[in-house]
Write the structure tokens for this entry.
Amino acid sequence: MASPRPAELPASVQRALETALAGSAARGGLLPVTFATEAFAPLLENWLRHARAAGVTDPLVFAMDAGLAAWLEQAGVPSIRHDFNGTLADLWYQRTLVFEWLARRGIDFIHSDIDAVWLCDPRPFCRAGPDFDLVFSQGINYPPEVWHAWGFVLCCGLFAVKAGPATARFFARVREMTAQVQDDQIAVNILLLDSGLSWRTDGAESYPLINRQGQVFTAYRGMLEGVSERAALRVGLLPHDRVPRLPIPGADALVRHPVGQGDLIEKLRAAGCWIDS
């Protein structure tokens, strides 16, 4: 029988986080957080180059294996060493431990996948408007039950968190559900759907988008606001054209996070967000 997953970060990782955050330039703002392994070092290097060009300093990079930790040390990039069992399911679980830890300690943060490339700093946009607890970029249709209910889904490839008791409780539940369903994006969407999250779509300008499989989802021109009284959360949905998953020419993108099968580097190059060495 498989061993139960840990309910908190190892003490060594917590100590490393405390040390890193004590000197972080992002303390008091949204701390950029990302995760990678040695196999994805070129993607991380590209992400870091774009982030620096956008004026972003001191991202919190989790090196999920020894190879990446050594590569980052040689490159002079600070990182936090963490581990996982080599599966995507465990990578997703391990990052929920980080999200919960940060929320419990009052650290506002923004998580980014390394293939969600920052063309501009998205943090000011995430904090514009109402006082959101969570702000997510838009996915397409996964998980399908949430897509059918809302017409869209939330994407865990880019999201911002205002730390506090409500978001700490939420990420504790995300952690617990991710251990069961093996996917944090499923957990986030299902938990918010089940919490009775209500989107305020009245007066919001929407339009349909179609993915390569011909499935239609709804996008909005401006930030969409949702409220869950049960979870005590206010949630924002970023406009799709600011963080596009589909290859939309002329989109006023802050971040590009192209979806699709095949080589990630070629996808990013085709989307105009790859800097060659």
